[in-house]
Amino acid sequence: MEESEIEKCPLLRVLLFIIVGIYLADYLGRGVSTEVWMLIVLVSSVGFVVLSFCRKLQLAQSLLIFLLAFSVAGWRMCLQQNQLFSTKYDQLDYCQAIVAQEPSIHGKVVRTKLLVLDGQNVGQTFNISILRDRLLEKWRRIHEGDGVIVHALLYDGAFIYKDNWIKASVSLSAVSGLMRLRVYALKLRHKLLLHISNHDYSPSFAIIAAMTLGDKSYLSKEQKNDFSAAGSSHLLALSGLHLSILIGVLLLLFPKNRWQSQLFILLAIWAFVILVGMSASVVRSAIMLSLCMLMHIADRKGFSLNSLSFAAILMLLCNPQSLFDVGFQMSCMAVMGIILLTPNIHNKVGSILLVSLSAQIATLPLTLYYFGQWSCYGIFLSLLVIPLSTIILYGMLGVYLLLPFTVFAQKLYIVVEEMVEILNKVVSFVASLPGAMINHVYISKFQVFLLYVAILSFYMAIKKFVLIKK
C-alpha cells in the first residue's frame, strides 16, 4: 500500500519530540537545570553511537534519536530561560540602539522599534513607546536607521520618558558583521521609502511600504482593520508569497538549470531578507524556499512535509521561544495545510482557490483561539487580490530597479499606485459587506486539539478513499 505524506516524513516525528521537549522545559522552568538536560543529551548520544553498530536494534536507535531531539530542545529552552532570568530589570542603564522602524504617532506617544547595540540586550529588537514632547518635538528628527542613546529599562512594550533618550551617532565596532548588515539595510530601506514617497505618505504608499519592504508603520488602523476583515492581512506581511514572486522574476532573468544561477538567487533572497529587517515571518519563508532551491540543485523532489519539518527544526533549535510565536504557528500550519490538503489540478483559478482554502482550513483552529474571528469572504477574495498583488510587486520591483532613471521610475510608480488604489478599494468594499467577519468565537486549547484531530481524520479518510478507488 502506498504511504501517505505523513507516514514518509521521519523529520516530522523528530519535530514532534522537539516540540514536546520545549513545552516540558517551559513548564518545568528552572526546576530542572541545564546540567540535567545536558546529561540526557550525552546519554542518548552515546547510546545511539553504541547501538549504531548493531543493525538488529533499529527500533532502539530510533527511540534514542527521538530522545536526543527531545533533550536537545529541552536544553536549548532551559538555556534561554536562564538567560532571561539573569537579565536585570531593576536597574536603569545607558545603551546604544538603532531605530529599526519609522516612528509613528499613537495618541500621546510615538511608537517604534529599537535594535540594541550594546549591554545585556545586545542584538535584540524591542517595540517601544516614547512620550511625545510637544515643545521641542525632537522625536520628529529621528528616522529608521538613526542612532539613539537610551537611559531606560528595555523590554518589549517598554515606555521611555521624553528626557530619557537622545539622538546620537552610535558605534558599530563592538557588534557582529550580521548586525552591521542589518543596520546598513535599515538605512537603505529608509532611503528607498523616502525616495518613492517624496514625503507624500498616502494610503497607497502605506500599502506599498508594507507589501514590498515590510514597513507597516505607515498603515492606518482603518487599513489594518479592513485587510483583516477581508481576510487579506497576509498581503501586508512579507511572507512566502512575496519571496516566491521575487524568485519568479530572478528565474526569468537567469538560466534555470545552472547551479551558479541557483546560488545567486539564494544570495539575492537573503539580501532581501536583511533589507526588510529580518522579521520572523520572512526568515521562516526564506529558510523554506532556500531548502527548495538546494533540493533543486541536488536534483531532489520539491518542497515536502519533510522539508517543512527540517525548516521548523532549524528555527526551533536556534530559538526555542519561536514555538510560542503566533506567526510561527500560523505560517507552519498554513504551509502544512497547502502540502497535505491541496490536490494537483491544472486549472489556475481552481488552484488559487484550493491553496487559499487549504491554508485557511489548516489555520482555522489557531485563528479562532488567538483572535476569535473568521473572515467569510477571504477565500473568494484571494482569486482577485493574489493576482493583483503579484502585478503590484512586479511593478514595484521595476520601480526600485529604475530609481537611477527618475523619470521612468516615477511614471511606473504612478501606474503601480493606481493598482494599489484598486486593491485598497476592493478590500474596503469586501470588509464593508454584511457578514464579512464572524467575531467573538473564542475556543480553548483542548478545542484547538480536537479541531486538528478532526482535520487530520478528514485528511486520512480522503487519502484512504483515494487509495481504495485506485
From TrEMBL:
Domain ComEC/Rec2-related protein: 211-463
Entry superkingdom: Bacteria
Cell compartments where the protein resides: Cell membrane
Keyword Disulfide bond in annotation: no
Membrane protein topology class: Multi-pass membrane protein
Main location: membrane
UniProt KW keywords: Cell membrane, Membrane, Transmembrane, Transmembrane helix
Transmembrane segments: 12-29, 36-53, 59-79, 235-255, 261-283, 303-322, 352-371, 377-402, 449-467
NCBIfam families given in the database record: ComEC_N-term
UniProt-recorded name of the protein: ComEC/Rec2-related protein domain-containing protein
